Amino acid sequence: MSIEVELKFIVEPTAVEALKVLVAGWPVQSRETLRLSNTYYDTADGLLRRHRVGLRVRGNDGRFEMTLKSGGSHVGGVSHRAEHNVPLKSERLEIGLLPESAWPEEISASGLEGALGALFTTDFTREAWLVNEGESQIEVALDLGEVRVGEQREPICELEMELKAGRVEDVLALAKRLASATGVRLGSLSKAARGYRLSQGSSELMPEPFGLLALPARATVEQGFCAALEWALAHWQRNEASWFEGHANAQQEVRRALVAVRQAIALVGGMIPRKASSALRERLLALEERLSARHAAGDVCYGEGYLALKLELMDWMLGQRWRAFIDERDEKKLNGSFKRFADVMLSRCRAELKEAFCAPLTPDEYKDRKPRLERMIIAFWLLSGAYPDAAAGYIDAWQLLYDGAGDREAHRLRALAQPGFWLSGDGRA
Prior knowledge:
It holds the Pfam family CHAD. By secondary structure, this protein is of the alpha+beta class.
């Protein structure tokens, strides 16, 4: 078994040739061109997909390989997945060759015999360069082809960076070299994920609002902070993809993701000095303000500085760049309980909203307070994961006030009248 660590980028077809020239100028150790055909398998009821497992057979010039991948995780936009590879004599699937340990506990490999069928294929030409960067070797692969389900087709035009040996930090360092390229943006969906969507009869990715950030019971403040940044970046990535599919309202979800990053940083402002994030926050705010007006996705996401900002955020997250600015007292606070911290901050957020909306407001006063209301709503999503049954209704009441539809005064009074659902500092709700 190996752990696959990779970054994925979507490439505009018009940018392909210039991108090849750019990559060829890097410290390339070797280069090859492959023609790859991949068939993905699952049961009729999607058992593997439900358990975030991918099973495929790859063909390359008469050679075949079976691969089983776990769903893994995305940390700061970088995917980490367990991967088992087994050579095959033909393109025929032989799951008996995979070790039993490769499968999740919930799946019996013996029970899959005869139940697996081909779902979709991905056929593409891969131009791959092995690049030296820092202490690492990284495969840079440009894939051009298509995902196919029956008569349905979806183009593949993407660049992947996969760590072959070395450090994740070097993958990000190499990725930053792409910041000068035009027509390149960070991707969020694998070829397999796109194939599963097509096989289910839809390739649409709808805009998605925020949901509660769930954390382990014993998470520290710093762990919660890191998870909040990853949560916001995932929201950014998903809704950016939806924006490109023509859903104009996804643009505002991208903007809200930027607000969420800044709000997460603000919440830990008593532990991480502002100077640790000042340059990053300024750039996030500038993009956030730009997104307040309607734009075409390509005009923004392929624009100057956009990819560089996203990679800077990822580097700041993965490298925990704030640690160079904290002292022993700050570190002790960051090692404290996130749950206790969240309860204190929820009370502060509620107090701020009560102060801001304690009396009826004129339209202009309401407009002035609306950005603060949005930040507090996002803070509630970030902080309320320990109370999934009670939090959603509470947040929805404030969201109705933010949306401004219907009787605003009734929404204000209803939101203010809600009791807190979290524990106070003395352990009482």
